[in-house]
Design brief:
about 220 residues, alpha/beta, Rossmann fold, 2 domains, seven-stranded mixed β-sheet, three-stranded antiparallel β-sheet, 6 helices
Length: about 220
């Protein structure tokens, strides 16, 4: 197991208190966190309620005996715990290379506190690279052209073997490649203004974000 991811997940677990409502992220680090949370819940009977950001996380949580709900039964999320593909110095994020960005944003943006679990290698001064964009299939080619206008050098469809990858929502994902992103919040908004775009992997609502950084020596630090 990756020591940095494990260290971040272990540190994140210390922010879970009995009776909380918790958002469960998606991806390799979130998977470690959910495992740890399930074991602690079994030992301590925390009485927590969870909302999962993907079918994979939901399946894992059910297997571990964690209580799951939706926004029909959980009005407020105390905290969400999720990974990220990149974190800049202002706590703007790129997420979604695991394919669950829309449900992640729905959950993570609604949490009172959003804990981002990463290794040192995910920290950067400025965001750049692939920004996942979830797209209604009908609009894929049109969205690709509009992304080029916004500066994407390419935006190929994510593939699942020889087939196009489909999100849990039944939509396609474009991997839009950008150089240095000077204004992540502006780009997040502009991409979402494109007709046919469901959402994108730029997360710039950073006022509630705490970044838990795991190191390969098994320690973790919290950036506020």
């Amino acid at each position: 197991m990756d020591k940095a991811k494990l260290a971040a997940a272990q540190k994140a677990l210390s922010f879970v208190n009995p009776g909380m409502s918790v958002g469960l992220g998606t991806g390799s680090t979130a998977e470690i966190f959910i495992d740890l949370l399930g074991k602690r819940n079994k030992d301590e009977k925390l009485g927590i309620a969870c909302i999962a950001t993907s079918r994979a996380s939901e399946k894992q949580a059910k297997r571990l005996g964690l209580a799951l709900g939706g926004f029909d039964t959980i009005e407020k999320l105390d905290a969400a715990f999720d990974g990220a593909d990149a974190v800049d110095s202002d706590f703007n994020l790129i997420k979604g290379l695991g394919g669950a960005l829309v449900r992640e944003k729905i959950v993570d943006y609604r949490a009172t506190r959003f804990f981002v679990l990463v290794g040192e290698n995910k920290l950067c001064d400025e965001l750049s690279g692939i920004v996942p964009v979830e797209v209604v299939p009908l609009a894929e080619e049109a969205v690709r052209r509009d992304l080029a206008i916004l500066g994407a050098s390419e935006a190929p469809a994510r593939m699942d073997g020889k087939k196009k990858f489909l999100s849990d929502n039944g939509n396609a994902l474009l991997h839009a490649k950008f150089g240095k992103i000077e204004d992540p919040a502006e780009l997040e908004w502009r991409i979402n203004e494109i007709p046919g775009v469901v959402d994108n992997g730029l997360f710039t609502k950073n006022d509630a974000v705490s970044v838990i950084v795991g190191s390969t020596n098994g320690t973790a630090r919290v950036l506020e």
